[in-house]
Amino acid sequence: MHYDVAVIGSGLAGLTAANYLAKLGYRIALFEQHYVLGGLAAYFPRKNHIFDVSLHGFPVGMIKSCRKYWSSEIADSIVQLKRIRFVNPQFDIETTFTREDFTKILVETFRIAPEMVENFFIKLRQMNFYDDDRQCTRDIFEEFFPGRADVHRLLMEPIAYANGSTLDDEAITYGIVFSNFMSKGVYTFEGGTDLLIKKMTEELMRNGVDIFKCSKIEKILLSNDQIIGVRANGIDVECRAVLSNAHILNTIKNLVGEEHFSPEFLAKVHKARINNSSCQVYMGIKSEEMIDDIGDLIFTSGNEHFDSKELKDFHTKSRTFSLYYPKTRPNEKPMCAIVASMNAHWDDWSNLDVANYQCEKNRIIEDSVRCLEQFIPHIREKIDHIEAATPRTFFRYTGHPCGTSFGTKFEGLEISMDLPGEIRGLYHAGSVGIIMSGWLGAMNYGVIAAHKLALNL
Ligand SMILES: Cc1cc2nc3c(=O)[nH]c(=O)nc-3n(C[C@H](O)[C@H](O)[C@H](O)COP(=O)(O)OP(=O)(O)OC[C@H]3O[C@@H](n4cnc5c(N)ncnc54)[C@H](O)[C@@H]3O)c2cc1C
């Protein structure tokens, strides 16, 4: 077997990169260790439900990216989520999360001067990755909304769930993602993650990509620091270049091996921090029990104030609820599902023995149901399937260190971009540096890396 490019991993970055390169006419092999494609854009069936793992909301930019790098059919299935709610001890509001509506809320409900809101949006829009700006998000919030912990919460909470960033991370990691959402609101894929991945797979096959599922890449093979192939399930496959969608640190440390990198580069690698992971509780609603529309996405917390640390605490009182009404899958039998998502730390979960692990999973299930009861009384009686995922689940299905949901902190992006300078023909794309994460970030980074690869092949 000889390919131009081996793509390792079928997350949205890997899939999009493979499609982009195949359309340019290169022979592409796509290797995925799991038996389904999609990576964290995952879904799974239980009873008569299909649960979506990360289909909670993405920015409008997905429409353009899907049209450009996939198909009009995929782009045309992207629809807006109109009811985004925030419910916590400081405020209870509903918004479309568009710039217009958000401005109105900041001005009318939070009594912020309109020109201050406008200047804040302008500042975020002008942020550029190449500016050497050392401000953190907390600094920006204090600059525009000093002492307004309630406003800080409104601005930060959704982004902390969207990319794992905190008040102390580089302001650009906030600015880019917030600005992406703030143009036209929050969107979803009508038909569910399963339909999206099915359509992407069909497109890849039409474009001639060879797809190998259940194929774990054990090693990236080099000769004189030049890519010559990959080893999948013990079999060597020749290729001229590799685009790894495996975690950046896994790619460097395990798939290539640190001995192949310069000491300067490795010094940066050793400083790269892994981003946080997640817990989720998936609830399937009995088919005869439709639920009323209480909103599409609810950011809720029982914590008095916003606190980045509390958000990922083992006993956090903060979570989001994603509501999947029959409109999510309009061509299927009408069903409802609800997913509670929490940010989480690997260390809190990694060392629990079997009994304690089960006990803690039951605890987050119970906490989530109890919290949901404030929005849907008697929800308990309407649930016919419930289960939880933890950082260990995310580790198991993706192999990402510490089951991370969002790659690395900011410093990981430079390492990812510098990879081809260390090993000829080696590229990385996927959640990294907080900015290049989420469905849109991962997909666009896949294109950026694939484009660079093609220029040098
Ligand atoms: C709970 C949760 C909720 C989220 N919600 C949202 C949301 O609402 N909106 C949004 O935009 N984003 C969301 N995200 C983030 C988003 O899902 C991810 O940022 C994005 O899907 C990551 O894509 P990726 O290309 O980086 O790769 P990943 O999805 O991380 O996939 C990497 C793939 O590589 C494979 N792989 C790794 N190593 C190997 C190997 N050695 N050989 C073969 N295959 C390998 C893995 O199995 C995996 O399939 C969420 C994430 C989580 C965890």
Descriptive account of the structure:
With 457 residues, this protein is an alpha/beta fold. The protein has 3 domains: 2-35 and 213-273 and 406-456, FAD/NAD(P)-binding domain (3-Layer(bba) Sandwich), CATH 3.50.50; 42-96 and 186-192 and 276-405, Polyamine Oxidase, Chain A, domain 2, CATH 3.90.660; 98-184, no CATH class. 42% of the residues lie in helices and 23% in strands. The chain contains 18 helices and 18 strands. The protein has helices at residues 12-23, 61-69, 72-75, 99-109, 114-125, 137-144, 149-163, 171-184, 192-206, 248-257, 263-271, 308-311, 346-350, 354-372, 379-382, 391-398, 411-422, 438-456; strands at 2-8, 28-31, 43-46, 49-52, 78-81, 84-88, 91-95, 186-189, 210-212, 217-223, 226-232, 235-244, 277-285, 297-301, 318-324, 337-344, 383-389, 426-428. Strand 1 (2-8), helix 1 and strand 2 form a beta-alpha-beta unit. The longest helix is centred in the last third of the chain and has 19 residues, at 354-372. It is globular, with a radius of gyration of 22 Å. It starts with a strand and ends with a helix. 49% of the residues are buried. The mean pLDDT is 96. It binds flavin-adenine dinucleotide (FAD).
